[in-house]
Design goal:
homodimer, about 325 residues, alpha/beta, six-stranded parallel beta sheet, 12 strands, about 45% helix, DNA-binding
Chain lengths: ~325, ~325
DNA sequence: TTGAAAGCGCTAACAT
DNA sequence: ATGTTAGCGCTTTCAA
């Protein structure tokens, strides 16, 4: 079954050598126009494509890039993936997506799996659980091209693409303050995530700039990125049971927001706090306690990250200085 | 850069032949226990994995399966993909996901791209735009294993996994009727999609069974599956501008629902119709005009489809009779 | 029990 | 301008 044609078949059919066929196919200049025509026409006729696996073996590369994210169902990541694909596709690369579901163990396995020579480079957004990143470091040391986006590893020297998390968090928190909130809580992602730190700083700065106090007990971290609902629910429950209930909540991510809202619906008797947070979902404006959202340029971030990765892959010489690209967020008010 | 170890390296290091190493690695019974131990230990020590590309070339298969869906951001598909991955991963297959964005052209390109020998089989859910399926037929004829799920092609003889679309549609429509709706509209997907036909039948049957009339002008098809918002918006606008406005709407899909709600919010002055429809999103219960939803067993569908595909791939002999598996939906009321 | 060698499909020196 | 050949990493007959 499914026995594809090879250049050997073409060579035989046309009474040429395989190398001539190969060269004609790739447009080698040493081949006479006439032969080239004959080969090309014939290849076209039988709808020939060369075996990418053989090509990979030969060239020691697979023309595919691996993408490691926590969850494809997350609007931010699905948009980023669209951006990645748009670039990859144009440059002739396959995109292999793998999900960690924010588990450290899955991240280790998936990166290894992808890296074991089936992929030319890796685009990674770290899993929430990951504290030890020896697995990444190892691949990086071995010379596998890696670009981080969104949830980056600051210590690893390569290209990184992030959004302005500080400013986004600042905007959202300031919005809540300007709306009159005096007691603004923060539902954060896992502590070890780069975005968590940056967003927390923006939150704190906005509080201070608006004459409010930073109270660490108002900050709840979700170590599993909201992967299990109990985590978010108990955080919200805690907050709503305080004597000084929050009148505003700054939520750090999309998945957290949904959990948040569900929990609030369940536990807030009466008025619910005002909510603002990072989200790339388009349903956010349709939600009952609506959420004003910090939208990240997900598609652009994906594009940029893919571009950079392919730059590294195709670069003849090791890249000297790696930059970190910071893209701006957009704040959208939903009353 | 990134020069991985080969069995040749191991052979040299251990003073054995490559064939001995190869056999030891795959546990060939002809190798002495001692040699096996030595090789295995060494391989373990240097963290050796054999080059999957060379393996692919040799075995004429890539241990990867391609998944073609319209959109990864769609909750139904992301859940189905999780199901697919859970099986594929266990059986040692990579999953390559590609999106058509419901475009016919992308579907043709992506299936070709995947099929050109880099993939051992294909899991497909048809794009909304596709009317001509010669591209699928061709691959099928060439012997490439294909399994359809959700949006299937009835004419192609292979395994198919769907949910009970008729019953799901029936349940949703009946729910609306029982709530007192007298004038129930239907926002449908593209006409040529298998699910469209089945769901429409369920909708019509429920109307009739509940003493309501079927009025074709109350059925609006979205040929691009809601890919462009105008499509859904104008459908809703049309419906709401009728002299006999619908008091209930049965929506055929998740993406359509969001568009629907947005449009309703914009165009319905005063009371909005009751809405029920197919959706696998968990936010649906949080939406302002809330949606009661028919949930498909997406994860299970993905699992089943992947299982069947791998069965075909690994089957020694051509499969005789292909079944179509129908899984039940679940109806969830959101007040 | 182990090794030598051919071959999967393709490319690229190196001939001619 | 075209052909011959070796080799990418691995498996597998065949021989020893």
């Amino acid at each position: 079954m499914f026995k594809p044609t090879t250049i050997k078949d073409i060579a035989k059919a046309l009474n040429l050598s395989t190398s001539t066929v190969s060269r004609a196919l790739r447009g080698g200049y040493e081949i006479s126009e006439e032969t080239k025509r004959i080969v090309l026409d014939y290849a076209e006729k039988i709808n020939f494509t060369r075996n990418p696996i053989a090509l990979s073996l030969k060239e020691r590369r697979s023309y595919s890039i691996g993408v490691v994210v926590c969850e494809v169902a997350n609007p931010f990541f699905s948009q980023a993936i669209n951006g990645i694909e748009s670039i990859a596709y144009n440059k002739g690369y396959h995109v292999i997506i793998s999900q960690t579901h924010d588990k450290y163990s899955r991240e280790v396995i998936n990166t290894e799996h992808l890296a074991n020579r089936s992929v030319d480079g890796l685009l990674i957004s770290m899993s929430a659980e990951t504290k030890d990143y020896a697995h990444i470091e190892k691949l990086h040391k071995q010379g596998l091209p890696i670009v981080f986006f969104d949830r980056i590893l600051k210590d690893i020297d390569t290209y990184k693409v992030i959004s302005n998390n500080f400013q986004g968090a600042y905007n959202a928190t300031e919005f809540l303050a300007k709306q009159g909130c005096k007691n603004i809580a923060h539902i954060a992602n896992a502590k070890q995530l780069s975005i968590t730190e940056d967003r927390k700083k923006g939150y704190e700065k906005a509080l201070l700039d608006n004459g409010l106090e930073v109270d660490d007990s108002m900050i709840k971290y979700c170590e599993h990125g909201g992967d299990n609902k109990e985590e978010v629910e108990s955080a919200i429950e805690d907050l709503l049971n305080r004597e000084n209930k929050p009148d505003g909540i700054f939520v750090a991510s999309d998945r957290l927001s949904i959990g948040c809202l569900t929990a609030i619906k369940k536990h807030s008797h009466g008025v619910s706090p005002l909510i603002a947070g990072f989200s790339n979902s388009d349903v956010v404006s349709l939600l009952k306690p609506s959420i004003s959202s910090v939208m990240q340029p997900a598609f652009e971030m994906g594009r940029k990250a893919a571009e950079l990765l392919i730059d590294i892959i195709e670069s003849k010489y090791p890249i000297e200085n790696f930059e970190t690209f910071v893209l701006e967020t957009e704040f959208k008010i939903n009353e």
